[in-house]
Specification:
This protein has helices at 2-20, 83-139, 145-199, 328-332, 345-348, 362-366, 405-409, and strands spanning 22-28, 30-46, 49-53, 58-63, 70-71, 76-80, 201-203, 208-213, 220-221, 229-234, 239-247, 259-264, 272-286, 289-299, 310-327, 369-375, 381-391, 395-399, 415-422. It is an alpha+beta fold. Mean pLDDT is 83; it is low at 344-367 and 425-438.
């Protein structure tokens, strides 16, 4: 009985020990081409498009263009009923005519007052001559002094009368200027009425194609604080752009002039080429997600792409040719208790710094130092400290100084550990610490 118990215990112990053995999944280091990219999405839109509105209110009498109509600058595309504005022009013209007649009346009044000035001047001159005659007669004692005093009083009266008439001339001239200013005011009102009448003719401001129409014949449009939108005209559908929303973590990697490619759902399997023309500095915050707009310009030569299409954009930010690369899973793997064989490359190989943007994917994206594991000759994993470069999201560039131990051990074709798998079971998650107790 004791022998059976001991035999069963030994069998259980060997099975438990076998279950704790870990089988590692591996992948080979390869040499090839790497591209670091930024992915985003945005809407296709014309480079230049104009919203055509109206500055006057009224009923639409005619709509002369439709969707996809080609228009020229200055071409009549719609008209608002002008009858009300025509009557305003006539009323303003009548006001101008009345104001001009008032000017003529004021000028005639000036002429009449100037005539009175001349008459008053003649009366004053006559009174002065009469005074001189009577003064001489008084000296000869032909008349009394009272007669001379009366003549002097008449001179004074005539002088004051002349001053009063001259003041009336100033008043009449001021009335002329007032009438002339009224004419200018009425003419300005007439010009405004004519401008409003001209605005009933809706014309195209640019050469282009009508991509949107929001009015129908007989519809009433009201222009208040904001001009209503009647048409949207794309100036050129052969030169278009994509307004891509770039995450704030990727915007630092974009520069004007970088090549970009994108595809749209309308043409699956087709890739369109463009170029980054602008990275706008204004941020957009939606649900605490900050994005920036990058403008991707492209030539829509065949006219396939239409405004409003959703484009999935891919921007190549960095390229590497003929470099060693490992799967990103190898960089994410951590095995407890296994320390790197070689010291950090920052100390052993100064200057071996990764150039270019940070790589994408997993742990490799957050820093340019990492470690990879290979299986040693004794069947135990060995760790090597490495420096990483660009990544395409699945593979990452290895930067190894020629004289480092990692450069000797990590060559093209060497198998690196990428994950663990218990014997007889499914693939286990990557090892980031000690295994839980059985």
């Amino acid at each position: 009985m004791l022998v059976a118990v001991l035999g069963g215990g030994a069998w259980w112990w060997t099975q438990a020990g076998a279950g704790d053995k870990v089988e590692y999944r591996t992948a080979a280091i390869v040499r090839g081409h790497l591209q670091a990219t930024v992915a985003a999405s945005g809407a296709v839109s014309p480079v230049a498009q104009v919203s055509v509105g109206t500055q006057v209110s009224g009923q639409i009498r005619e709509v002369l263009v439709d969707f996809n109509s080609e228009v020229k600058a200055g071409q009549l595309i719609a008209q608002i009923d002008p009858e009300t504005f025509e009557y305003r022009v006539r009323s303003a013209q009548a006001d101008v005519d009345a104001a001009r007649a008032a000017v003529l009346t004021a000028q005639a009044n000036v002429a009449a007052v100037q005539t009175q000035v001349s008459r008053a001047q003649v009366d004053l001159n006559e009174a002065q001559r009469d005074l001189e005659r009577k003064q001489s007669l008084v000296e000869k004692q032909f008349i009394t002094q009272s007669e001379a005093d009366k003549a002097r009083a008449l001179v004074n009266t005539s002088t004051e009368a002349l001053k009063a008439v001259q003041a009336q001339v100033g008043v009449a001239q001021a009335q002329v200027k007032t009438a002339q200013a009224n004419v200018a005011q009425r003419e300005a009102a007439l010009a405004q009425a004519r401008v409003d009448l001209a605005r009933t003719r809706i014309t195209s401001p640019v050469n282009g194609i009508v991509i949107k129409r929001t009015i129908e014949r007989g519809q009433t449009v009201a222009s208040s604080l904001q001009s209503p939108e009647l048409f949207v005209i794309a100036q050129n559908l052969s030169d278009m752009q994509v307004e891509a929303a770039i995450d704030e973590s990727d915007v630092g990697r974009l520069q004007p002039g970088q090549k970009a490619s994108f595809n749209v759902d309308a043409f699956p399997g087709q890739t369109f080429e463009g170029e980054i023309r602008q990275v706008r500095k204004a941020a957009t915050n939606v649900a605490n997600v900050v994005t920036y707009v990058a403008i991707v310009r492209f030539a829509n030569v065949q006219g396939k792409l239409l405004p409003g299409m959703t484009a999935n954009v891919r921007v190549v930010t960095e390229q590497r040719e003929n470099v060693l690369k490992v799967p990103n899973a190898a960089l994410r793997l951590r095995i407890e208790g296994v320390e790197p064989v070689a010291p950090a490359l920052a100390a052993s190989a100064p200057g071996a710094r990764a150039q270019g943007p940070r790589p994408e994917g997993g742990a490799a994206r957050g820093a340019n130092r990492s470690r990879v594991y290979v299986m040693g000759s004794d069947g135990k994993p060995l760790a090597y400290a490495v420096r990483v470069g660009v990544s395409d999201g699945s593979s990452t560039e290895l930067i190894l100084p020629p004289d480092s131990p990692a450069a000797t051990a990590l060559r093209e074709g060497v198998e690196v550990l990428v994950g663990t798998k218990p014997q007889g079971g499914a693939t286990a998650p990557r090892s980031n610490g000690p295994r839980p107790p059985f």
